């Protein structure tokens, strides 16, 4: 049973033809294919080094972006502080404006008093003018000359002096009140204008700071988006790194199995040669093994989306859709290099195949479940899961990819499976 399983495993991994017993040409061909597998393993190793370099480079870029974020964050905090200080100044100026407005109200009351006094004096002056007009043009000199006696003259002189002084005082007070009125009005207007201008300047400064903050936040959002993009790229690179490691491991297993197979074939050939030389019978050929021919990956369904460009972007595989419980099969003999859940692929299985010395990788995505594990040798037509709708999927279907060579992040090895794999 173990020998049969070994034979199937070797054939399923390598997809090689039958080596006739004692045929040195077939053994040489197998050794050549081992060399090819070693070369492909070397290529995978080189790609791993390339991925590691990209990861290091991406890590450095990510650190640069994070440093930029720190600087931008400091600048935003500085602007926030400046905005806060400006808002504090604006509130202070608003209080000063309120105080000024209160002072203006007081000044306006004082102005009203002044205006009333000035109005009253105007009336007094008008009354004096009317009295003079009604009594004729009598001058202070006429009043003095009208004295009957010297005593009357002295009395009249005192009265005239009092009138003159009163008139002079009225005029002085009147002019002083008018000057004070003009001064207070100007003071009110100047104070209010200055405060309003200062408030306007502060408001403009606040707008400018808000614009700067908005610009910095825009830069920060862009940096965070760039960081997310870099994280996504690093996740994808790590995923590719893991797949390459699994491919390398599968390749090593394939080489070991092929070496065992060649040794077993050589041993059988030697035994057959001994039997033939001793007249023990005819040579016995090895039983037939899988030729590595492809089989349909889904038990049922129709091709719902082909390979290549479509409205949702470049489709690097084909979709097979069906309803109900639909088994998914390994399209050819091979080794499982990845069995995992992906946010995009959902439940996915990657299988590496070596067919006639050429490495192929098949991908089975959006499955309901996975029935194989990494490193497991599978045979063509072996069930590996059920069709599903996991990951970024719209309706139950199998997303199937075929790559000539190793799977990589940019899927440069993807080929159209139509015409190669029965669908």
Count every helix, treating DSSP H or I runs of 4 or more residues as helices.
Answer: 4
Q: Give the total of beta strands.
A: 13
Strand content: 15-25%
SSE pattern, N- to C-terminal: HHHHEEEEEEEEEEEEE
Rounded average pLDDT: 77
Give the CA-based shape: rod-shaped
SS class: alpha+beta
Rounded to the nearest angstrom, the radius of gyration is 52 Å
Largest sheet: 8 strands, antiparallel
Could you give the distance between the termini?
Answer: 33 Å
Coiled coil: 27-124
Signal peptide: 1-20
Region (Disordered): 266-290
Pfam family, one: CC_PcsB
Summarize this structure briefly.
The chain is α+β, with helices and mostly antiparallel strands. The chain has four helices and 13 strands. Among the domains are: 67-226; 289-423, Glucose Permease (Domain IIA) (Distorted Sandwich), CATH 2.70.70.10.
Question: Care to describe what's here?
Answer:
The chain has helices spanning 2-14, 24-134, 140-145, 150-277, and strands at residues 302-305, 308-310, 313-315, 318-321, 327-329, 334-342, 346-355, 358-367, 369-370, 377-378, 383-386, 397-404, 414-415. It has 423 residues and is an alpha+beta fold. Among the domains are: 67-226; 289-423, Glucose Permease (Domain IIA). Helix 1 packs across helix 4 and helix 2 packs antiparallel against helix 4.
Summary tags:
single chain; 423 residues; alpha+beta; Glucose Permease (Domain IIA); 8-stranded antiparallel beta sheet; 15% strand; rod-shaped; disordered N terminus; Cell_wall_metabolism_enzyme; signal; Dup_hybrid_motif; PcsB_CC
